[in-house]
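Title: [Solved] Ig-like domain-containing protein 3D structure

Original question kept below for reference.
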Amino acid sequence: MPRILAAAGVLLAAVLVPAGAAQAAVTCAPDAYEIDDSGQNAAPIAAGETVHRAICQERTPLPGKPYAHDIDLFEFTAVEGQAYTAEVVGAGAQLANNGAGAGGLTVGISGPDGTGASVEQTFSIDGDLVVTGPLHAGRYRVVAATMDQEIYPEDNVITTRTVQGDAGRYGVRLTATAPAPVVTGLTVSPNPVNGGKNATATLTFSSPAPRNGLIVNLSSSNAFVAGNVSSSQVPPGATRYHMTIRTGRVSADTPVTFTAKVAHVGQPKTAVLTVRR
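Solution (posted by the thread starter after getting help):
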């Protein structure tokens, strides 16, 4: 995915428009790569580097951009078996997250070789940090993106913004890191449980949750009989995590399979809970 090798001092990005239309000059400093919403314009990034770019977002999409949001792409070559972390740093005033997953930028890592498949295993609730597991050698892309509409911190209102220039400056840092934790165990207790009573799922991880925590998914094969909040944020440093399972009354003993894993990649672990009549 593109990387932030923007030319310092480039304050205006001229955007080509169809013949006969007025040409737009838009402040996108320091983003010399605009419009770069496709992989063809991805900028290079390497482990250990922080690259600096700018979001160029309009209420009315710029000529050549299909949406008001902005996507910046960065591309790197992974070493066989190495894990990587990508995170947003130094976000401008209009890109700041509000601590609850609203506003700001989100980042992701996909590949290999432009397949688009997500490879990150964990991310902060704000979406501004992702960690992969061990990757196969190949070309991967980091994407930093805004949505057309965001809930912005200062007013907590969904709105479409014009984000340009200094307010849209940000950096993406790519580092070679230890792999993200994966779920190594899943137990449910009490098991069996009487219908209408709660049970507790305990997830165990291969290593402590990273400094921004991680997202875990717990799914049920029969949510009408036994269900839970499907996704949850695990706090930093945790090596195990508990999730409440709520059950309903049943006419006969009913087995329900729960599946747990760290988002988005990793081998799932399963456990069967029996709900008694």
